[in-house]
Amino acid sequence: MLATIDNIPWSSLKHAYGFADDVPQQIKDLGSQDDQIRESALYELYGNVYHQGTRYEASPYVVPFIYELLQSEKVAKKEELIYFLVSIALGSASELLPSGINSEEFRIGLKNEYNDLTTKELDKWKVYGLSPLYILDCYEAVNKNVPILQELVKEKNVLIQDTAIYSLGWFPDYAKTSIPIIRDFLPQLEDENRLANALLALGLLYRNSSLVIDTALFEPYLQSKSLLVKSITAISLACNPLKTEILALLIEGLNGFEHIESDQYIFQEHLLFNYISQTLLTLGNNHKITIISALCGRLKTINQYYCTEIVEVLSIIINRNKSLPVKNIAVDDLENIEILALKTIAAHECNGVIPDCFTILGNEGFPDSREALLEYLDQS
Fold first, then answer.
1. 370 is in which domain, residue-wise?
2. In whole angstroms, how far apart are CA 71 and each of 47, 82, 204, 241, 253?
3. Residue 300 included in any domain
4. Given CA atoms 305, 311, 316, 319 in this order, what sign does their dihedral have?
5. Domain tally for the chain?
6. For residue 19, what are the β-bridge partners?
């Protein structure tokens, strides 16, 4: 295991803190049976090759060795290594929800970003070991060995199973083989959190591949007694135009959850109501009044630390198709439902977090304080 790791020219590859001479020992320590050594190595490796989400020249070279570790029976905490691979491939994967990743668009976007850099910018990035192409190399390195992740679904350890399923949802190039693996695993999942994880992974794969979604696979879960399962199924089935029955389930879920408290619900870096509000934003153009009303109702019940997600979604919906910033539009020219949304935001105790709701509004072209918003609304 790791027989070729010293063949990599680590001393000439850059990471967040200079050259990557320390990386091979960190990778080797990931295979340690000593929890403290292993955890320290993973922490240091994150800091070096995934520092605050940034990938470096050395980052893609790490990936094949992580896969080697995952194939060893002696390595502990494999679920943490799977998370690491998803992070290296995608950055903050939760920010890609609810749509997931279209792999071709992802590749084209990074290549275009590289091609748009000036010579001066390229030289500056090179000093720090940065390039959009290194991010692409990371994605391709992880994507290349997805069949190893597919095999990990067969592990006996529940956390490894669930994390492997979670990981498959982000690599639609393998949808044709990953979907049957997850589909056949569903009958084993009695726990609602594990089932929700698998259903969301399936939804991401169907959404970002050329495969026609198997609605018959999902429909029984729309009748589940679990609100979590119903909500995740609705997210997975949501498409444009949004169907009325799916909309109703999404709104039910919007009002039912803040945070999912479970180690087994893998897609939990964001709040479930945020998944749902983002789904409504992305696919709900044909239900504007219903969606704004539902979001306003939820905003009235949510505390100041969770309100920013909904305020941001409301601001984007209101702004849609407007040629001027809202603050430059007469309030009487807004739709009644848009005015209702702004009044609901103005009434909310949404200070105390950074960025607060009014910072978000200001960035989107709205009045940027409660006082300014109330003054704007009083013009009607």
1. 284-380
2. 24, 11, 26, 43, 38
3. yes
4. negative
5. 1
6. 14
